[in-house]
Write a structure and sequence with these properties.
The complex is a heterotrimer of chains A (500), B (327) and C (343). Chain B has 327 residues and is mostly helical. Chain B folds into two domains: 10-236, no CATH class; 277-315. Chain B contains 15 helices and no strands. In chain B, helix 4 (64-88) packs antiparallel against helix 5 and helix 4 (64-88) packs antiparallel against helix 10. The two termini of chain C are 17 Å apart. Chain C folds into two domains: 1-31 and 313-343, no CATH class; 57-311, ABC transporter involved in vitamin B12 uptake, BtuC. Chain C has helices spanning 7-28, 33-45, 48-73, 81-98, 104-133, 137-157, 190-209, 211-221, 223-228, 233-260, 271-281, 288-310, 316-338. Chain C has 13 helices and no strands. Chain C is globular, with a radius of gyration of 21 Å. With 343 residues, chain C is mostly helical. Classes of the chains: A alpha/beta (500), B mainly alpha (327), C mainly alpha (343). At the B-C interface, helix 4, helix 5, helix 11 and helix 13 of B face helix 6, helix 11 and helix 13 of C.
Chain lengths: 500, 327, 343
């Protein structure tokens, strides 16, 4: 089925998530949609699959203009979406998931099971219809969704970041499946931020950046060109302050850490006082796990983490705080700020208990309102002492979090410190952070913005697929080189020679 | 000891089945509602109102059918308040359900004054010819009244609906992961309303079954504590119709055994036994929440493990009590 | 722009709605609404004795709702509060058996103290079940309520059975000396009112002006963020249950020492549950809940007059209270959903 999107606009409040985007996907092809997180890919695909209505623009299927009012409506017209976190029901069996939502009174167990087995056989999937979904890996859950959507007669299949969190053999199988489907005449839209996947899979690629379509390429794909479209703005290497680094403050020693999706083994990293480490890598490559472990919020399975000479791995979080470790999360309202509490209340909360600046049990409100007002002025927060944190804008929430950091700060760990913030806030926040570093605070941060990584870090740690694949000195590295490493590839020889 | 064994006689067991019928209706009604993702905490008050309405309506109209229908209507009406408050208005489900639980109790006491301890109608025994003469099974399952038969049917029907129909798949889907059901074209909000009302009607029916079938008539706080116990049985039963039914029968058995147990364990007063389900529920939750059972399960063959999975679950439906907005 | 209600309308609308619904119920029961409401008012404020009785009930409701404010602040539905009251009563009676014949002042203080300790332990148990057993506090609390009732039944029909009677409804009546002293000719004890005022003020100050109160709020709003910011969330949760248990236990002890003077089966008389309604209706505020508690107490006492005067059941006051809270919840919800108001 041929899918044409023309002049799609979609806004969420002040954010223009899709700004006049037009693409055309021919039947029987695999179309890649590339871009960093927040570029607008998912929004565009949710418009196409009926989850959102576009503010303006037109959708054509086989040259017929259609309107898609709901996911069910889109499904009926042959568009199915495989979500990054598959939309299935984990406590139910595969077959039950497969049949759910199909019209009828009794469960069509016999017919469904034989169709299920046939489809699985056709794609060489090893799925047991009577197993429970919660026992499956993400890759297997994707396979289940694929056969389910095909059974429902989907002609256009959208896959949102399907290679995140699945194993290499599963990925190979997925790609084989997609080629097979394209050969059958289905149109596939493959949404990803992974260059190497798009390169081997797609016959056509479009790149989105900040809601705008910035370029398109046909196969054969030129990865370097795509990296430029995705990332490169003017890399503006300002004069970097030279700071004398202190002695080693954080040591990660041969640590193993794991969560549901990822296992990192043999992680070793030393960070000196006053040093800034930028973590670069695609979302879900292990940066988050590594940072949570270094902040004392995730217990490691093996190895040790030594902070300021003390082995803290396995110790309660309170001891990490006492050692001068602080964490600033990407999801500010979920694990950084407490909705319903005012800015002043946040200051009280952190000053009394965490920083133990006073061991009183009662709160001197006038004093703290004054103190809080000083912080609001100092950090230029657009809000009042009594403003609840959820009423602040993202940039001001981040400034508020920053203003909560203790005076005695030895190690600061930040996930995406400037994601979604305006330029002014970004510059302001980094100004504050660099001052901290001059006082000897070590900083570890992750970012999807390569400029930011280059601008501020002394060393860049590259994560790929749960491994630290490179530790680079920023001054000896180029943006192109890093682009390749992030995508899990070795940079071409000429690039390496230039910079060594 | 003899008294203790006496409860296992056929007549005694048969009366346990009859006695447990109201709890079956109430606990399964709550199961329907919670499976769809709505906690209806008002069971205590809804049962009480159902018992009063059922008895009063049947008494005034001299029609048992009208009595039961009226009780179901009251039950559905009370659950409609829970549904409107939580699904549409996004208020705290627990708060509204809890207030209605207290309100139902008080309201039934107030409105029930004229009906206290007066004779009325009752469901009559209805032995099924031929089948009732089968040894053992006959007296247990075919020499009962219509309410008990309906309770049997409801247990099997609930299982059938949940696990064998397409609608049942969707019902479980909206309770476990409404987003997934929505993506499959389901109107989550409408279905949650429907199932909450159906569940509420069943709870009301359970109340009427109490006053028209088990302990006849109406008295001050006639069904006291039965609603809370029904809630505990739903958890004890792991939201699975058969296990919930087992919980209700276990409770009936304990209650029937109380006199026997008292002579076996002297010093423990009779009134204590009806309260046992709660400590049992807490114990069950602790055992099921620790992973000891999971580890035991690993020694069984995969097929058996799987068929036990839905029967032995201890976690509530994942979407229970969570608000869902469909755009 | 969405229209918004004025604050007055927010307060008045639920009351009007509740009066309307209750009037309808009264008419269904075959009585005159106006006559009934007048009887309630008269029944709670008509004489000095009635006013003093209202204060007797108020003490229990006020202390209990103060305790519940603490658990609600931490985001917890402490339905186990009924059982915590019962344990307080058991603790108080136990104290009288331990110090039988002791100096009255000593015995009475021990009663209050043991009551508070027993209530606190019962409260902490709910928290422990939640944190370590994975048992939701609502069901853990309900379960422990039933266990507490069972304990009462066991005690008064077993070890604490009064000698020479076959009654199983109450333990031995306590000697006069260890009753909380009351005002001449009235049932209200000034000591209990003073205790209630102390508890209310302490809870108000603790929630408003202490770091602990703020930490409770943080845990109740988002325990993950609170933890990351350095709040020891589990300890805070347990402390909330401890404090609420202490309050409920104190209520139980006062009920024994100042009201019933013996252990009876339903000694908590639903005060715990009604205190939950009070806190809901107060919008979880420490200023409003003692006032609403007074209103509820007056309704409760006024309700008892109905049976004598109008031959109606006293539960009408409970009906009015329940309808009021339901109306409040619904009006709030409607206002937020369709009129764009915030809390």
């Amino acid at each position: 089925m041929k899918v044409t999107l023309s002049h799609i606009h979609k806004r969420f409040g002040a954010v223009h998530a899709n700004n006049d985007i037009s693409i055309n996907v021919e039947g029987g092809t695999i179309f890649g949609l590339l871009g960093e997180n927040g570029a607008g890919k998912s929004t565009l695909m949710k418009v196409l699959s009926g989850f959102f209505a576009a503010d303006s623009g037109e959708i054509k299927l086989n040259d017929q203009v259609v309107s898609l009012s709901s996911p069910a409506d889109a499904l009926e017209k042959g568009i199915g979406m495989l979500h990054q976190d598959p939309l299935d029901v984990p406590p139910m069996r595969l077959l039950e998931n497969f049949m759910m939502g199909v019209r009828g009174f009794l469960q069509p167990r016999r017919t469904a099971e034989s169709s299920f087995r046939e489809l699985c056989q056709a794609f060489d999937f090893d799925l047991d219809p009577h197993a429970f979904v919660h026992d499956l890996s993400v890759g297997e859950r994707q396979q289940l969704e694929i056969v389910r959507l095909l059974w429902l007669g989907v002609e256009t299949l959208i896959l949102d970041e399907p290679t995140t969190g699945i194993s290499a053999p599963q990925k190979e199988k997925l790609f084989a499946t997609l080629h097979q489907l394209a050969a059958d005449g289905k149109s596939i839209i493959f949404v990803s931020h992974k260059l190497e996947d798009v390169e081997v899979l797609c016959s056509e690629v479009a790149v989105l950046r900040q809601g705008v379509l910035v370029g398109q390429q046909n196969a054969p794909i030129d990865p370097a060109g795509l990296v430029k479209m995705m990332f490169v703005q003017e890399v503006n290497l300002e004069e970097r302050l030279n700071v004398d680094l202190g002695s080693t403050f954080l040591q990660v020693q041969d640590a193993t850490m794991s969560d549901l999706r990822l296992k990192m083994e043999g992680v070793t990293l030393d960070v000196k006082a006053g040093e800034v480490i930028g973590l670069a890598g695609l979302e879900g490559s292990g940066q988050q796990l590594l940072m949570q472990a270094c902040a004392g919020l995730h217990r490691i399975d093996k190895g040790a983490i030594v902070v300021g000479g003390q082995t803290l791995s396995g110790r309660p979080y309170q001891e990490w705080l006492n050692a001068g470790v602080a964490f600033m999360p990407a999801d500010r309202m979920a694990e950084g700020l407490v909705p319903g509490l005012s800015i002043a209340e946040h200051h009280v909360l952190t000053r009394y208990r965490r920083d133990q600046e006073q061991d009183k049990k009662t709160i001197d409100w006038p004093l703290f309102r004054k103190h809080s007002q000083e912080k609001i002025t100092e950090f230029n927060i657009k809000g009042f002492v009594d403003s609840t944190v959820e009423s602040l804008s993202g940039g001001n929430q981040q400034r508020a979090l920053l203003s909560l950091l203790p005076k005695k700060l030895r190690l600061l760990i930040m996930e995406h410190p400037t994601r979604g913030l305006d330029i002014e806030s970004v510059l302001y926040i980094w100004g504050k952070l660099l001052k901290r570093r001059q006082d000897g605070t070590a900083i570890i941060f992750s970012s999807a913005d390569l400029d930011e990584v280059f601008q501020y870090s002394d060393r860049i740690v590259v994560c790929f697929g749960g491994q630290i694949t490179a530790v680079l000195n920023t001054s000896e590295t180029s943006v192109e080189q890093l682009g390749y490493l992030i995508a899990g590839k070795q940079p071409p020889a000429d690039l390496r020679e230039e910079n060594v | 000891m003899e008294e203790l064994l006496a409860i296992f006689s056929i007549t005694a067991l048969s009366s346990v089945l009859a006695f447990s019928a109201p709890l079956i209706f109430a606990a399964l009604g709550e199961t329907w509602s919670e499976r769809a993702g709505v906690i209806n905490l008002s069971v205590e008050g809804t049962m009480m109102m159902g018992a009063l309405t059922g008895f009063a309506a049947a008494k005034v109209t001299e029609s048992l059918v009208i009595g039961f229908v009226a009780a179901m209507a009251v039950g559905a009406a009370m659950s409609a308040i829970v549904a409107f408050g939580s699904i549409t208005l996004d208020r705290d489900q627990v708060a509204i359900g809890f207030v209605l639980a207290l309100l139902g109790v008080e309201l039934s006491s107030f409105l029930g004054t004229p009906f206290v301890r007066i004779p009325g109608v009752a469901v009559r025994p209805l032995p099924i010819p031929i089948l009732a003469d089968i040894p053992i099974l006959g007296p247990l399952f075919f020499d009962q009244d219509i309410v008990t038969y309906l309770s049997f049917i409801l247990i099997v029907f609930t299982w059938f609906w949940f696990y064998r129909t397409q609608a049942g798949l969707v019902l479980r889907g909206i309770g476990e992961r409404p987003e997934a059901a929505f993506a499959r074209g389901v109107n989550v909000i409408r279905l949650r309303y429907i199932y909450t009302l159906i569940g509420g009607a069943m709870i009301g029916f359970g109340g009427a079954a109490f006053s028209l079938h088990v302990i006849l008539g109406w008295s001050y706080r006639h069904t006291a504590n039965f609603g809370w116990i029904a809630l505990a049985i739903v958890i004890f039963g792991g939201w699975h119709p058969y296990r919930v039914a087992m919980g209700a029968y276990l409770f009936g058995l304990i209650r029937a055994a109380a006199t026997g147990l008292q002579s076996a364990i002297p010093g423990v007063p009779v009134q204590v036994f009806p309260l046992l389900p709660f400590p049992l529920m807490i114990l069950t939750l602790i055992i099921f929440n620790s992973d000891s059972l999971e580890r035991l399960k690993l020694y069984l063959p995969t097929r058996v493990q799987r068929s036990l999975t839905s029967f032995l679950r201890s976690t509530p439906p994942a979407g229970l009590g969570k608000h869902f907005e469909q755009d | 722009m969405k229209r918004s209600f004025s604050p007055v309308a927010v307060g008045v609308a639920p009351v009007l709605l509740a009066l309307l619904v209750t009037s309808l119920i009264i008419i269904i029961a075959g009585a005159q609404p106006l006559e009934v409401f007048l009887a309630i008012i008269n029944g709670s404020f008509g004489t000095a004795i009635k006013i003093s009785d209202t204060f007797v009930v108020w003490v229990s409701l006020a202390i209990c709702s103060a305790g519940l404010l603490v658990t609600f602040r931490a985001g917890q539905w402490n339905i186990g509060v009924e059982g915590q009251i019962v344990l307080g009563a058991i603790g108080a009676v136990w104290a009288t058996r331990l110090f039988e014949g002791g100096a009255p002042a000593l015995v009475i203080s021990t009663m209050l103290l043991l009551g508070m300790i027993a209530g606190a332990l019962w409260g902490v148990l709910v928290g422990l079940l939640k944190i370590y057993g994975g048992v939701n506090e609502i069901f853990g609390g309900l379960g422990l309520n039933f266990v507490a009732t069972s304990m009462t039944i066991y005690l008064i029909s077993g070890p604490w059975k009064p000698e020479g009677t076959s009654s199983v409804s109450a333990s031995k009546l306590l000697p006069n000396e260890i009753w909380l002293p009351t005002l001449e000719g009235l049932r209200v004890s000034p000591v209990s009112i003073v205790l209630a005022l102390i508890v209310i003020v302490l809870v108000f100050l603790a929630l408003r002006g202490t770091i602990w109160g703020l930490e409770l709020k943080a845990v109740g709003q988002n325990d993950r963020s609170a933890f990351v910011l350095g709040v020891p969330t589990q300890r805070i949760l347990l402390s909330a249950y401890t404090v609420c248990g202490i309050c409920a236990g104190l209520v139980g002890a006062i009920l024994v020492a100042g009201v019933r003077h013996q252990l009876v089966v339903n000694i908590s008389a639903g005060y715990g549950f009604f205190s939950i309604l009070i806190v809901l209706l107060s919008g979880f505020t420490a200023v409003w809940s003692p006032l609403i508690a007074f209103f509820f107490a007056a309704l409760g006492i006024g309700g008892t007059a109905l049976r004598l005067g109008l031959d109606l059941d006293s539960s009408l006051s409970g009906v009015l209270q329940g309808v009021l809270v339901v109306s409040f919840e619904l009006v709030q919800g409607i206002r937020q959903k369709w009129f764009g108001g915030d809390n």
